[in-house]
Amino acid sequence: MTPTPLAAPDTVVLVAKGGGAPTVGPVRGAVVVGLVAIGAFFLLVGTVGLVRLPDIYNRMHATSKATTIGAASILLANTAYFGPRGAGLVSLVGIVFLFVTAPTGSHMISRAAQRMGVDFVGDVTWPAGDDGVDDPTEADAAEPVDD
C-alpha cells in the first residue's frame, strides 16, 4: 500500500519537520506553565472583583490592576514559548500597549463617573484641592489662572 502524499508535488508546505512547534525544554516549559498559571490567577481575581465589589471605582480598580498583570503574564508566557522574534515580539508589543492604555482608560472612566455624579459607597469623598474644588474643570472660569 502506497501512502497518500499530503500535498501535490508542486505545492509548498510551510510546516517544519516534527509538527512546526518550537522545541521546549523542561525549564522553559516550566516558566511558560508558571506564567500562564499566574496570569490565569490574576484574571480570575479581576473577574471576581468585577462581580463582587460594590461600586464602579472599586470594580474598575480590580479589573484594571489584576487583569493588566494577568494578561501581561500570559503574553510574557507567549514570548517565553516562541522566543523574542515573530509571535514573541508581538506579545512584547502587546504588553507595552497594555501598560500604556489600561491606566489611561481606567482614569478616563473614573473621571467620567465623577463628573456624572456617581458617588462612592459609604462616607468616602473625593479629595478636595487647595482651592476647595475637587475638579479643576469646575473652577470659576472668570478667575485668572497663574502660569
TrEMBL record:
InterPro entries (UniProt xref): PhaG_MnhG_YufB (IPR005133)
UniProt KW keywords: Membrane, Transmembrane, Transmembrane helix
Example GO molecular function: sodium:proton antiporter activity
Stretches that traverse the bilayer: 30-51, 63-81, 87-106
Bias type Acidic residues, positions: 131-147
Coiled-coil regions listed: none
Pfam families the record matches: PhaG_MnhG_YufB
Region of interest: Disordered: 128-147
UniProt xrefs under NCBIfam families: CPA3_mnhG_phaG
Protein name: Cation:proton antiporter
UniProt source species: Haloglomus irregulare
